[in-house]
Amino acid sequence: MLELRGITAGYDRRAPVVRDVSLTLAAGESVGLLGPSGCGKSTLARVAALLHRPDAGTVVVDGTEARGWRHRAPRAQRTAFGVVFQQPRLSADPRLRLRDLIAEPLRATGAPDGIGELATAVGLSDDLLARRPHQVSDGQLQRACLARALALRPRWLVCDEMTAMLDASTTAALVSVVEDYRRENGAGLLAVGHDPVLLGRWCDRVVRWTDLAPGSGPTGGGQAGRGM
Amino acid sequence: MTPLLDVRGLTVRFRMPGGREVAAVTDVSFELREGECLALIGESGCGKSVLASALLGLLPGNAVASGRALLGGGLDLTAADERVLARTVRGRRVGLVPQSPSAHLTPVRTVRSHLRETLRELTGRRGGEEAAAARASFPADHLDRYPHQLSGGLAQRAATALALVGDAPLLLADEPTTGLDRELVERTADELRRHVDAGHALLMITHDLAAAERIADRVAVMYAGRIVELADAARFFGSPGPRHPYARGLLDALPERSFTPIPGMPPELDALPPGCAFAARCPSATDACAAVPAFDGTVACHHAPEASRA
Fold first, then answer.
1. Which domain holds residue A72?
2. With contacts defined as CB-CB under 8 Å, which chain A residues touch B153?
3. ipTM for the complex shown
4. Which residues have a Cβ under 8 Å from the Cβ of B189 and sit 6 or more positions away?
């Protein structure tokens, strides 16, 4: 179970983007978090994935309260999460070939190398695996970023606007990779987005930001996006 | 009536090191009239943006273009020299609404300063920034803001206002809605449509099928550098639907439809297979697909169903 209790978070303590928000995901459950640009949903997703320290509130991952964030999180908690961001170009080291990009979490944790199955699952050929990010399309790079997120077999996946830059067919392909993985491994999912049709089709349940955080309206100054 | 833009057999090749050649655009033909919106759709990497660069004369040095793209029945955009393009075409006869507008604007200058320079260069007038901003519904009280102080939607309007200053009859929008949320996509699309209804011709390059459906009169589907289907938007998105199997697959991948991806990935543009480039992913491929299907003006497929006369 993934529990977010009374989370307040942001980039300026005087003006938090997220105020006192709680959300609970059951083990293996997929939840879509729906809201407009700049509402704070990406910040909440980063808190859930232990990538951003909240100003207040607690995160409980499968019964253990999170005490550290980012590199200070204990490895067992950190590696329980696989994260995919909106913009693959900004999430990929331009120097790494896709093969090494996908294997980076394995290398970093000393896990045995082996990305063959992952590459097959996301549909990347040997030819593409040998290329660097500037030599592939956004869709191909996002496939590699998803494979990287699955490399350590996480119990939780956080997909923050994973498909916002992609065409319809690539979107459907990546969602089916995530769902195949979840079916086999029983992993839970927090999918953040602004497309109600997509999230409704993808997730067990969809939570609207306005219901989750009635007090905090769009701020227009979020870290990940800007609203009107 | 002469179409405003008449593209005939446009082909763009990139010469790469080692004798490699990238077939970015192959034998593309279409027409665009005043007061009409044509949406050019396809997966990323299919050659859409190269086509836009060719129409603006902004291809890099290693590109070789052939065919023609006649603007207003006269000037060939693929053959015009840089002086002509810079002094009489860009901004004046072809306006660009860019992808990611906040990156397109100069970060250290206000919107007013952008508009002032554009007005001076394109019209010779001083002043008039408020009126120019109003044409794209950009609020006058935000004119003195810098790009980073604008939301995605307002940055989009600022970029559109700049594209409209020169009163160019042809507007070219390159992925104008990427990364915007649904409400903003609809607002941006509706604003572009308003300019079409005011007499501009709009070529909208996009992979956002919802935006295309919302405002396009016609749809051109591009796959591996070729246009494979050119259809009336209402018939394409409604009934009887697309005729090319790639276009059918693209619509079927939408979450409101069957949400199933087209198997495989598009071929690399430097290693296109002989014959139909879609055959390897196509459910109805046969031996006939070993030959490249000719584009008959509406579809390029050996197995397309007959156009029904509805």
1. 2-89+154-212
2. 227-228
3. 0.85
4. B176, B177, B211, B214, B215
